[in-house]
């Protein structure tokens, strides 16, 4: 239900068809039930899908709350790759909102988590998209000020 919901929201973002929002809502309902039965395994996925759904509904305060909950629950469940995905999606959200400093923090966290998890291909993919990620943290401020560096 999780990936089906994410896919439906991505399609909705492109095509604006109500059918995709219905699919996403249905997936949220499935995950909500599953999350109640198995919170450690599904809470982070439920909150991440809820965050993306909130973005689609332009409820940005809720979206930020749910992104944060997803990250926290993935961390508590010690699910590094899911925590990395939540950070990555939160970073892209901040890019769309033109909050480059917050975007950098989240994308950097995603990069570090993917590397720690052993996701070499994913961390390399992020590094190609955002070359500054390989730089030392002390150079962080320079890259924030160069807003063109952080773009999709």
Walk me through the structure:
The longest helix is centred in the N-terminal third of the chain and has 20 residues. This protein has 8 helices and no strands. With 152 residues, it is mostly helical.
Whole-number mean pLDDT:
89
Distance separating the two termini: 27 Å
Task: Based on Cα principal axes, name the global outline.
Answer: globular
The structure class reads: mainly alpha
Number of strand segments: 0
Low-confidence stretches: 136-152
In which range does the helix fraction lie?
Answer: over 70%
Radius of gyration, Cα only, in angstroms?
A: 16 Å
How large is the count of helical segments? 8
Topology:
Blueprint: H1 2-15, H2 18-37, H3 39-56, H4 60-76, H5 80-96, H6 100-117, H7 120-129, H8 140-145
What are the main properties of this structure?
mainly alpha, 8 helices, 152 residues
What's this, in brief?
The protein is an all-alpha fold and 152 residues long. The protein contains eight helices and no strands. It has helices spanning 2-15, 18-37, 39-56, 60-76, 80-96, 100-117, 120-129, 140-145.
């Amino acid at each position: 239900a999780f990936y089906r919901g994410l896919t439906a929201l991505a399609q909705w973002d492109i095509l604006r068809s109500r059918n995709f929002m219905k699919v996403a809502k249905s997936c949220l309902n499935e995950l909500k039930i599953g999350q109640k039965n198995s919170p450690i395994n599904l809470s982070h996925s439920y909150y991440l899908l809820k965050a993306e759904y909130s973005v689609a509904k332009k409820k940005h305060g809720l979206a930020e709350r749910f992104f944060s909950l997803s990250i926290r629950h993935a961390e508590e469940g010690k699910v590094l790759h899911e925590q990395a995905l939540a950070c990555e999606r939160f970073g892209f959200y901040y890019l769309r909102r033109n909050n480059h400093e917050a975007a950098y923090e989240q994308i950097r966290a995603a990069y570090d988590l993917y590397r720690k998890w052993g996701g070499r291909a994913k961390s390399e993919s992020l590094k190609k998209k955002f070359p500054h990620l390989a730089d030392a943290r002390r150079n962080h401020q320079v890259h924030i000020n160069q807003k063109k560096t952080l773009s999709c």
